[in-house]
Design brief:
217 residues, 10 strands, 7-stranded mixed beta sheet, alpha+beta, 4 helices
Length: 217
């Protein structure tokens, strides 16, 4: 005769074997495009630098300039000039909408570009990098009455597309802005300021992830 405790253990085993009796399956994160991440390399002395991207969470690369192939290997000057013809490494990727949305900013369409111009240097970008951002997104940002903008930093970005650099940089900033297009602005909690110091061999990356497809109206 099977004891009552044994029957209970069998039931529990079957239950957990099917991932829980009452828990519903968690939905997969929404696939979205990471548009135009730019990577800047500033070594302390001119040298060859190898950069490898490792997509995770089912992400994959879509475009690159220069051609990515199995990775980038470039000659980097202290000014950031690469192979005497590029100012940055460019790529785009399909990633998952799996980002922090607790802290951010709500910005109306009438002030979005002046807001970028003011906020990006406080997040760690130089004026040159901010100008590159504005040059690209002034023509590529889809219209919305309001944009909810959530900053994502190194650890979160690495969970989408990890980056491996040889030689290893002394300081690195990976900043993606996850943007949700909405019909009206609402109050959201603004993040605490993040101070980034450039020391030694420095790498900077910025990018934008749109919740709705980047090319949608």
């Amino acid at each position: 005769m099977i004891k009552r405790e044994s029957i209970l253990m069998i039931c529990l085993s079957l239950c957990f074997g099917f991932m829980g009796c009452d828990d519903e399956d968690q939905p997969e994160p929404e696939p979205v495009d990471a548009g135009a991440p730019y990577i800047y390399l500033y070594p302390e002395e001119a040298q060859e630098v190898a950069v490898t991207l490792v997509p995770t969470k089912g992400a994959w690369l879509m475009e690159s300039e220069p051609l990515y192939g199995d990775g980038w290997t470039v000659w980097a000057e202290t000014s950031g000039r690469l192979d005497d013809q590029y100012d940055f490494l460019f790529y785009s990727a399909r990633v998952s909408w799996d980002f922090q949305m607790e802290f951010g900013w709500a910005v109306g369409s009438d002030e979005i570009f002046s807001w970028f111009d003011n906020i990006l240097p406080t997040l760690g970008l130089s004026q040159r990098e901010t100008d590159d951002f504005l040059e690209y997104w002034t023509t590529h940002l889809p219209y919305s009455p309001c944009y909810l903008i959530y900053p994502q930093y190194n650890e979160t970005v690495d969970q989408q597309v990890e980056i491996v650099i040889d030689p290893e940089p002394d300081s690195i900033l990976r900043l993606w802005l996850a943007i949700d297009r909405v019909d009206s602005c609402t109050t959201i909690t603004e993040p605490e300021p993040v101070v980034f110091k450039r020391t030694g061999f420095t790498v900077i990356e910025w990018g934008v992830v749109m919740r709705r497809p980047i090319n949608s109206p």
